[in-house]
Design a protein that fits this description.
This protein has four helices and no strands. It has 88 residues and is mostly helical.
């Protein structure tokens, strides 16, 4: 019984340690993605043709570089584009 409790406790500690270190294991964003994020945050305040040009540019960049989908800012940029599309 004690052995089982110790094994479960050890597994829980390993899981907690992994989730505690997860931000350190995530690679930082590259400068291009940071620029895309800043621009996507202001999509609501730019003319529609500029916003659509940004979206086409970003989609082209993400298709040419599929590894950017692993970037931590990628989902945030997608959220901003989705929010813009719902507004217009």
């Amino acid at each position: 019984m004690k052995k089982t409790i110790l094994i479960i406790a050890a597994m829980m500690l390993v899981c907690l340690a992994f989730y505690g270190w997860k931000p350190l294991l995530q690679p930082p964003s590259n400068p291009q993605m940071e620029a895309y994020y800043r621009e996507s945050a202001n999509l609501g305040s730019v003319p529609a043709d500029s916003a659509s040009r940004f979206i086409a540019n970003f989609l082209g960049y993400s298709l040419a570089n599929p590894s950017v989908q692993l970037d931590p800012l990628y989902p945030e940029i997608e959220k901003n584009m989705h929010k813009y599309s719902l507004m217009h």
